[in-house]
Specification:
By secondary structure, the protein is an alpha/beta fold. Helices cover about 45% and strands about 10% of the residues. The protein has a seven-stranded mixed beta sheet with strand order 3-2-1-4-6-5-7, sandwiched between helices. Helix 9 packs antiparallel against helix 10. The protein is elongated.
Length: about 325
Amino acid sequence: MDIREKETTRHDGPDISVVVPLYNEEESIPELYAWIERVMKANDYTFEVIFVNDGSTDRSWEVIEQLQAASPHVRGIKFRRNYGKSPALYCGFDSARGRVVITMDADLQDSPDEIPELYRMITEEKYDLVSGWKQKRYDPLSKTIPTKLFNATARAVSGIHNLHDFNCGLKAYRHEVVKNIEVYGEMHRYIPYLAKEAGFKRIGEKVVHHQARKYGKTKFGLDRFVNGYLDLLSLWFLSRFGVKPMHIFGLLGSLMFLLGFIAVCIVGANKLYALYMGLSARLVTDSPYFYLALTAMLLGTQLFLTGFVAELVTRNSPERNKYQIEKVI
C-alpha cells in the first residue's frame, strides 16, 4: 500500500490561486485580469492567476503572454488543441499553489468581487469547497429550465442537497481538495460530488452575482445536458461499484437466472401435471414462457460472468488500493 503523508497545516504558496479555463476569449482576458488584480490588492492577498488556454484559435494565448510579461502573478498553460473544460481544470489544479483555489470562467459572467467572501468561507468557516449559486441568471429559458432539471437530478443522485447550482464555474476549494480529486472527461459539472466521494464533506454554497456575457458567445450547446446526465450516471456507478463490480452484476445476474429457472420449472411442472392427469398438453417448446425463461437464464449467466470478469480486472488494477489518507503520524 502506498501511504503518503498529506500536510494540511503548513502552506508555503500564495493565499489564492485563481484558475481560469478559457477558449477564444481574447477580448475579456485583460479586463478579467485587471479586475482580479484590483480585488487582490484591495484585500492584500498574495495570489497567482493561472490561465489555461484550451486550444483557442484566436489571439487568447498572445494576450496571456503579454499579461505574463507585465505581471509576476500571471501563469499560463496552453493546450495544443481543444480538450474541454475538465482537462483544463485538471491541469490548472495540478499547477495551483495557493492555500485557497478559486475557479471562474473567462467570459466575465463570474464576478471577482466574490473572491474575498469565498476565501473567508474556506479559511474561517472551514469549508472544503464552496460553490457559487447564480440565483438570478441572465440566460434564456432554453438554458435555465434544463439547468434546473439537471441540478435537481444531481442533488438527488449525489446526496448533496444544499447545492442549487452544480455547474457554476465560480467555486472555491481548500488546497487539499484540488490535489486529491481527478477531474476528467466532462466531470467538471460534478466536482462537488467528486470532492464528497474523496472524503471532503464540508461543502457550502454562496449566492453570487451573474452578469450577462459581454463579449463573444457561449461555447456550450444543448448537448451538454444529455452528456451531463450520462456523466452523472457513470460517476454514480463508479463511486458505488467501481472496485466491486460483482456486487451489482453478480446480484442482477443471479436474480435474473433464478427467475428464469423458476419459470422453466413452472412450465415443466404444468406439462408433467397435464400428463399425470391424462390431459392433452401442448409441447413445452410451444409455450412462449419457455423461451422467455431461457432468455432470462442466459442473460443472468452473462451478467454474472460480466461481473466475474470485471472483478478480475479490478483486482489487477493499480488503483484498487488507492485511498484518501489525510495524515499519518
